[in-house]
User: Fold this.
Amino acid sequence: MEQLTQMVANMTVEDANNNDFQKKFFKAVIDLDLSGKEQEETFRQFEEKVSTLEAKLDMEAFRAEFLEVTKQYLEEPLKELEAENILISIDQVTVDNIGEVREKVVRNISLVDDAQTRSEVVNKLIQKLISLGIADASQYNQLQKEVFADVNKLRLEHGKSTYKSDITERNGKYVMLVSTAIGGPRVDELTNFTVTNIRHAVYLKENALLVDIVHPEKTVKNVIITSAEQVSRDTFANKVAKFNTYCNMTCNKDVFSKLMGYIKSQIYGSTEVIDYLGLIQHESSGKWYFVVPEQKKSGQVTRIGYILPEENPPEDQELAAIYGNNHHEVLVEIKPPKHPDKWMERAQSLLEIVPNLLRDGKSHIIVAWHFAALLSPYMHENHVSRLPILNLFGGKGSGKSTTARIISRFFGVKKALTLGSTPQPLRQGLGSSNAFPLLTEEFSNKLPYAYLISDLLKNTYNRDEYKRGLREGANMQFSLHSPTIIQGNARLVNEAALSRMVQLNIEEKDKLMNVDETKKLDLRSDLSDFIEPYLRYLVQIQDRWDEFYEQGVEYFLNATAGACDDRTATNATSIGIGIAMINDLARQYDLQEWDSITIKMIMNLVVQASEEFNTKPIEIQFLDYIQNHYNAKDMVEGNAISISPTEIRIKTTYWTDRFEQYIKDKQIDYDKTMLINNLKRMEGIKINDPYINGKKARGMTLDPKKLEKYGIPADLWSDPLSDGIMLGELSEESTEELPPQ
Assistant:
């Protein structure tokens, strides 16, 4: 600094007007890396000296020239590289020239400002290395990291990371070199934080950035910057401040676009972003690992854990990032046990004592279902094996809720999901995890949103995406995939859900274990001591997971010879997978295996339950009921039913009330509103106020010919007043003239 001050003090008139002297001054300022205030002070001294010498120098043009020289100085080392042909053909790479080509790729793509293009070229190079056998697929992420590190090092060394702007990082802040009206160029502070670890991410099907926000007081990892937040200064600032309250921005909207360009220029790779917990596959290595909620407080998952395979585990930066709101709805905590020596004791209780809670294999099925849930993403992905929804129904005091809660506690479930007045908790719960159980409180078809249950459960079974509208007019899409247990006093009857369920009718007589035997389970202790060690065991043996599937198929075929429909076979095989996992654990730790007699009992019960409860849709049952139960009394005593050669007219309230009592006697949960809505959607039914036996009544008109497509035979509608003559055969004399509607 003293040398620069002396240079200004010794300046002559000739020096002031000499281009070489000016450039020498510029270079001295740049080399000293002065702060904004120091630069302004230096230019103020320079301008005072010019004024003293009465030199004819345009200071505004002088400052503009300084900015241009600064840019040229930063880009000078790249001039030779810019002469290279950036668009090389990686397809021509061979084993012999790979070293030369790699060096050229790194050198050339360091010139490319578009981060997406850099990423694509690097990935193409690595894929070529793998195809030539030079590298193994398991090294993909490591190679990607190494190449990007070389690229970014070169860009930073030569100033290319400034994204052809005057923005850079200094002392943990973003700053920009700007020209001022007084004094000369200065360094303006844009933020009091920086963004690091910048990666491409696909979030909610749009391109986003995944970054760490760094402030001297606090660092926040894995923050999503959406496309909208990348183009709006205020939206970006609000997002950053939301995650790190120490952070603030002072740049305007125009400068923000340059800042975002600078940030994007430092993207080094890509990662997966998800909004659920459970079993995840590492893309490049194909290894599976668990992402678990280690701690929940005030409805939020406050600590995430990763249970990784010991052999070639993914590195920290390669692990799936968890972001969003759905995963907070998981009702599970899975953390290292307080008493590690207790986990085997818990395993023994789960395999040998818990199955005796209920008779005839019913509690066996619930235990096996919980085991199968843990690997359901793998089975769905590799064997198209879908985990059924578990529907437990029965009267109060039957033991269904107690049994489900005890078993779920071994798997980390802390409480059941309360079904409130809106579907939002259930919807988010169904998207919160792909492997950990979601246990609901009592479900009823009379819930205000019961009509949605069909789509929600169907999507959950298929692990499909669910689209939900947002207030802003946009749509949010997320997967529904949580292994789900629905409880209720009566069973679900929705036709879309029935075949996707294993339904168990739990009765009070099914209780098998008395109070003294239940004490052996030590229910006051933390039963979840079992699950974390078991998950660690499970990821280490993932090369044997296919054997679980094969064994599950074998259990099913041995018990049933495959004599059932495909959906029932899939449901039974899923339970068989759980049994295979149970017996594997028993063999490894010298516990009691489930024998072939027990397994056959379980398989037959699953098949029986699927076939028994896969009934007709509720609206078809309603029409069947009318067809089978109306009589002359209904027609003579008023406006219950009226039959003509071409149509049937019924009084709605009369028949829905009778049907309600009939259906409840069969332990089926019934909702009249759902029934009427389903009838409205059927071809051949009109909701109106028809004349029935000469009297106008609130009801509906049925077209028997059109209803035949639903399996309702037209020729079974007969007029009991006409001696059982079938519809269409009624004589003109025996047919009552009906008033027009």
Remarks:
- The CA atoms of residues 387 and 574 lie 6 Å apart.
- Confidence is low (pLDDT under 50) at residues 74-88, 470-474, 723-741.
- The chain has five domains: 2-78, 88-158, 167-273, 340-613, 618-726.
- The two ends are 101 Å apart (CA to CA).
